[in-house]
Amino acid sequence: MPATKLTNHRVEKPWGRHDLAPLFDDQPATASAIGEIWYDDPSAKPRELLIKYLFTSERLSVQVHPDDAAAQARGFPRGKDEAWIILSAEPDSTIALGLTETMPAEAVRAAALDGSIEHKLYWKPVNAGEVIYSPAGTIHAIGKGLRVVEVQQNLDLTYRFYDYGSARELHLDDALAVSDFGPFTGNPAPYEIGPGRTICADGQKFVLERWTMAGRFTIAPGSATVWILPVEGQAAIDGEPAALGDAIIVEGAAGIEIAPGSMIYAAYPGARVIDGLFGS
After folding, report:
1. From CA 249, how far away is CA 252, in angstroms rounded?
2. Where are the alpha helices (DSSP H) in the chain?
3. Which of 1, 3, 158, 245 has the fewest Cβ atoms within 10 angstroms?
4. Distance CA 150, CA 118 (A)
């Protein structure tokens, strides 16, 4: 079958939340808060991308991820670029991206040790509907009050600079070795390449598209693997429902039916948009 629905599991985090609806059932008030929902591939194939949902009630640690070269030098298959799809945000929600000004590495180390690094980051206000692509090497921190889909290269490796005085381990030497010590350069604006087909990120490690068109189509990814993520409305792939909170991998030609008023994100590895992805 060309389409595989992924399973998922909940990950408890002290900065998580209990209100997960409408994407998932709320966490019981008597249970620990849920910070992440990870997607698992029942085929156990090695995959280039990984999908998570994040639910935040507090700021996450100040951290950084290695690029391909730095990760491969340590025996990992790839680095970790990531992108965040903002599903909901509170009026004061922010995400830290890069430094407010260029700093020497040793000054960044000192700021991490005394905690002032929190105030040397650019905390960008964020709103529902935004998509942010964060290349490896970007010093960052996800803020509070957010529901986010995280699409990333498949690497579970994070170097922490600062964690607000918690007892968790920091990784200053590793973090400094892979970081950019300047402001975040920003993302190109999304652009539409067809009715209801918007490219939110391309030109780097993976492409992220947003689909809002309605109707029946054939997805023809060729040799690529496409992750499909419904976040509003409803869809079906080869006749099987694709509901809110689902993640489906498509390998090979598959039919998709998208209901009016729906919003679906699709991600696939590589820098280039698949021009012939859709047939009618």
Report:
1. 10
2. 68-73, 105-114, 172-178
3. 1
4. 22
| Residue 135, number of CB atoms within 10 A of its CB | 18
Q: Which residues pair with 229 in a beta bridge?
A: 265
Between CA 252 and CA 259 the distance in angstroms is: 22
Q: Which amino acid is at 184?
A: F
> What's the pLDDT tens digit per position in 70-86?
999 999 999 999 999 99
Domain ranges of the chain: 3-178, 191-279
CATH assignment of 191-279, given 2.60.120.10, 3.20.20.70, 3.40.50.720, 1.10.357.140? Answer: 2.60.120.10
d(CA 66, CA 138): 9
| pLDDT < 50 stretches in the chain | none
Q: What's the CA gap between 195 and 176, in Å, rounded?
A: 44
Return d(Cα 105, Cα 103) in angstroms, integer: 6
Q: Is the peptide bond before 125 cis (omega within 30 degrees of 0)?
A: no
* pLDDT at site 167: 86
